[in-house]
Amino acid sequence: MLSIVWETEGLQTVGIVLIVCASLKLLHLLGLINFSEDSVEDELELSAVRHRPEGLEQLEAQTRFTRKELQVLYRGFKNECPSGVVNEDTFKDIYSQFFPQGDASTYAHFLFNAFDTDHNGSVSFEDFVMGLSILLRGSVQEKLNWAFNLYDINKDGYITKEEMLDIMKAIYDMMGKCTYPILKEEAPRQHVEIFFQKMDKNKDGVVTIDEFIDCCQNDENIMRSMQLFENVI
User: Fold this and answer.
1) pTM of the predicted model, to two decimals?
2) What are the residue boundaries of the EF-hand domain, all occurrences included (predicted)?
3) Nearest CA to 19 among 117, 151, 207?
């Protein structure tokens, strides 16, 4: 599927799809979801979770997950991450399995930083489900805000051409031999030049959140990609 998306929908769509797709893989490898049809219902019926009731009630109010869904997520998270946090090396290990033909370490680093909202070097269960709630069930505006934060590497409120190029190079590196047709070395820069010019409407050399959202909302391919993985759990 990813090679088809790469070929027909354009690099900018791939970048946003991979945010969601990689997050689903993180859930799957942590044992939090299974893609068989009946597994989620079975998990909900059988879940016996140790959790902090106050925290769970707060997360239910703050996210779009039900209490039972949060119980399933929390049980799996605690089973796989007894310390209660996921570190960057875990992200890198997961994406190296997801993209064995490429080097996913840089993209995993950027995605980890997007989940690590308080920038303390680890992703807690709260960080995790808050991000997933946006990616899987958030509004278009919320998803695009999250994506902007990913591209805004230094968190100064703007996306520069260099930041976009860093993300795009990371995507190319992660895809590796999965890309079709085989792409030339200068391809990431060429794609960024085209897409950055499209986003930077006032030509001031940076992309604001408003420019980013406006451009994405007017791109049919991006809007389609944002709907691919809704309500999977």
Assistant:
1) 0.74
2) 103-138, 139-174, 187-222
3) 151
Reported as a single tens digit per residue, the pLDDT across 32-85 is 444 444 444 434 333 444 434 347 888 999 999 888 888 888 877 777 677 778
What is the 3-class SS of the chain, one letter each residue?
CHHHHHHHHCHHHHHHHHHHHHHHHHHHHCCCCCCCCCHHHHHHHHCCCCCCHHHHHHHHHHCCCCHHHHHHHHHHHHHHCCCCEECHHHHHHHHHHHCCCCCCHHHHHHHHHHHCCCCCCCEEHHHHHHHHHHHHHCCHHHHHHHHHHHHCCCCCCCEEHHHHHHHHHHHHHHHHHHCCCCCCCCHHHHHHHHHHHHHCCCCCCEECHHHHHHHHHCCHHHHHHCCCCCCCC
CA–CA dist 115, 130 (Å, integer): 9
- Domain architecture of the chain: domains with CATH: 2-35+73-225 (1.10.238.10)
The mean-pLDDT minimum among 73-77, 135-139, 195-199, 221-225 falls in: 221-225
The angle, 0 to 180 degrees and rounded to 10, between the axes of the packed helices 11-29 and 187-199 is 110
Asked whether the beta carbons of 221 and 195 are under 8 A apart, the reply is no
